[in-house]
Design a protein that fits this description.
Length: 99
């Protein structure tokens, strides 16, 4: 099954090879441990506010900080289909709302 991997270490290296995780966390005003987990690819969920701060700091798009990779332990592939269902609740109108 495909997995999302962090590319923060690569982005940091390209930006400034001497930039430390601690300095980056301080510069973006974010928890050191969260930045460290992203750097070491140990993060389970990627906080949107952290991604935004890193994108602004490095002047990159989110896709430059994370990527989708095939898991080495699996031969699974994702099948794309055009059969997506939309939530129709947004399209329904109620007569009670038209007073």
């Amino acid at each position: 099954m495909p997995v999302i991997k962090s590319k923060l270490n690569e982005v940091m290296l390209n930006h400034d090879p001497k930039l430390s995780i601690r300095k980056l966390a301080k510069d973006v005003n974010y928890h050191f441990d969260s930045v460290r987990r992203m750097y070491k690819n140990e993060m389970v969920q990627y906080p949107r506010d952290l991604l935004l701060k890193l994108c602004l700091y490095f002047d990159v798009q989110p896709g430059e900080l994370i990527r989708v990779e095939a898991d080495e332990d699996s031969d699974c592939t994702i099948e794309e289909t055009g059969d997506r269902q939309e939530d129709n609740n947004d399209n329904e109108s109620t007569e009670a709302g038209n007073l």
